[in-house]
TrEMBL record:
Belongs to the TsaE family. It is found in: Cytoplasm. This is tRNA threonylcarbamoyladenosine biosynthesis protein TsaE. GO terms for cellular component: cytoplasm. GO terms for molecular function: ATP binding; metal ion binding. Pfam families: TsaE (PF02367). Its main location: cytoplasm. Keywords: ATP-binding, Cytoplasm, Magnesium, Metal-binding, Nucleotide-binding, tRNA processing. NCBIfam families: T6A_YjeE. InterPro entries: P-loop_NTPase (IPR027417), T6A_TsaE (IPR003442). GO terms for biological process: tRNA threonylcarbamoyladenosine modification.
Length: 158
């Protein structure tokens, strides 16, 4: 199943992040949620993540983790882990940081530059591609399993 949406500006990107988070929370979930965020530098992966996290009441700034690979947020009884693997030189580092423990039933893992962690990450429930469209963006979301499908169902009906 897939879902596409045109995003006119940064504000709309954040609003969509809120809607996506709502859909994740509404979807039935026994094993946590893993989302790969794909797109070129500056496409809006972190902006979308910020919209998702701030929609749960987080007031602080949400920026990509730079000196660590992951930033964590504990909000609304959820553990949200925002990964940015751009600077990861060897995917084995993920093994050393205990990456497997991050993927559990209470977690929402949002992963930028997931291709750098190839072979060491939980499979995605959703893959989100963000493409440049002049100043706007085009988002294309693809479900990878039934949990991902449920999230897209929620997106389509809210
Ligand atoms: N329609 C739009 N949606 C999202 N961001 C937009 C849009 N139009 C312009 N922008 C700008 O594009 C930039 C997106 O930056 P952001 O850090 O979210 O990208 P990123 O995909 O996380 O990049 P990186 O790969 O470097 O981490 C921001 O400066 C934002 O203001
Ligand atoms: Mg980013």
């Amino acid at each position: 199943m897939d879902y596409s949406i045109y995003i006119a500006d940064e504000y709309t990107m954040c609003r969509f992040g809120a809607k996506l988070m709502q859909s994740i929370c509404n979807a039935e979930n026994a094993k946590g949620t893993t989302i790969y965020l794909n797109g070129d530098l500056g496409a809006g992966k972190t902006t979308l993540t910020r919209g998702m996290i701030q929609s749960l009441g987080y007031q602080g700034n949400v920026k990509s983790p730079t000196y660590t690979l992951v930033e964590e947020y504990h909000l609304a009884q959820k553990n949200i882990y925002h990964f940015d693997l751009y600077r990861l030189s060897d995917p084995e580092e993920l093994e050393f940081m205990g990456i497997r423990d991050y993927f559990n039933q209470d977690s929402i893992c949002l992963i930028e530059w997931s291709e750098k962690g190839n072979g060491f990450l939980q499979e995605a429930d959703l893959i989100i591609n963000i493409d440049y469209f002049d100043d706007a963006r085009q988002i294309h979301i693809m479900s990878q399993n039934s949990h991902g499908e449920q999230i897209i169902q929620q997106l389509k009906h809210t």
